[in-house]
Automatic annotation (TrEMBL):
Pfam families: Lum_binding. It comes from Campylobacter hyointestinalis subsp. hyointestinalis. GO terms for biological process: riboflavin biosynthetic process. Residues 1-87, 88-184 form the Lumazine-binding domain. InterPro entries: ATP_synth_asu-like_sf, Lumazine-bd, Lumazine-bd_dom, Riboflavin_synthase-like_b-brl. Catalyzes the dismutation of two molecules of 6,7-dimethyl-8-ribityllumazine, resulting in the formation of riboflavin and 5-amino-6-(D-ribitylamino)uracil. Its EC number is 2.5.1.9. Lumazine-binding repeats lie at residues 1-87, 88-184. It catalyses: 2 6,7-dimethyl-8-(1-D-ribityl)lumazine + H(+) = 5-amino-6-(D-ribitylamino)uracil + riboflavin. This is Riboflavin synthase. Keywords: Repeat, Riboflavin biosynthesis, Transferase.
Length: 206
């Protein structure tokens, strides 16, 4: 699990489509889970100046891997008892979005990101979302896109200041929204309504 707060911006040393080698101050152990631009990947080797992770064929197809060429966000997995300042993330990317508008504000910068239609029902006004591993709040939901506002401190501590219109970004929707969709989808497929007792039970899980 992760919480969407970037630990470090690492430098890409090499990427051959399968193995991604990074220069970083953080020192993981073999097998550790690290979120790279939001995607949970496993450490397969360590070096004096960084570490390497391996991408599966599935990951290569579902991530914006064209961004593994210069710098990337990294976040190590949480430990039990850690403070959660963002929101709970699994590092499982739901889709790839595209930045279509960047608008500077008196304080902060608006980003409008176009999302695939098959995940639009999982986003909500003032809900949580992760963009390239950064935990953010959705300010507005449109028909096929969302608007986010990046505050100055996030600009400083992430790569958002370097993002341009047209960039593709990894998107992870809210964890609870996915489970609610699954629960309600099963009920609807059997033409059954969710009882209040069942609703109370599912609510108790979260």
């Amino acid at each position: 699990m992760f919480n969407g707060l970037i630990r470090e911006i690492a430098k890409v040393k090499s990427f051959d489509g399968k193995f991604l080698s990074l220069e970083a101050k953080f020192r993981p152990s073999l097998g550790d889970s690290i979120a790279i631009n939001g995607a949970c990947l496993s450490v397969v080797s360590t070096q004096n100046d960084g570490f390497s992770v391996e991408l599966s064929s599935e990951s290569s197809k579902s991530l914006a891997i064209e961004n593994y060429i210069d710098k990337v966000h990294i976040e190590p997995a949480m430990k039990i008892g850690d403070r959660i300042d963002g929101h709970l993330l699994q590092g499982h990317i739901d889709a790839v979005g595209e930045i279509i508008i960047i608008k500077k504000l008196p304080s902060g910068t608006d980003f409008v990101i176009k999302l695939p239609k098959n995940i639009m029902h999982l986003v909500a006004n003032k809900g949580s979302i992760a963009v390239d591993g950064v935990s953010l709040t959705i300010n507005e939901v449109f028909e096929d896109s969302i608007r986010l506002t990046i505050i100055p401190i996030s600009f400083r501590d992430t790569l958002f200041g370097e993002f341009k219109v047209g960039r593709r970004v990894n998107i992870e929707t809210d964890l609870l929204a996915r489970y609610v969709e699954r629960i309600l989808g099963i009920k609807n497929s059997h033409n059954k309504k969710l009882s209040w007792q069942e609703a109370d039970f599912y609510a108790s899980l979260y």
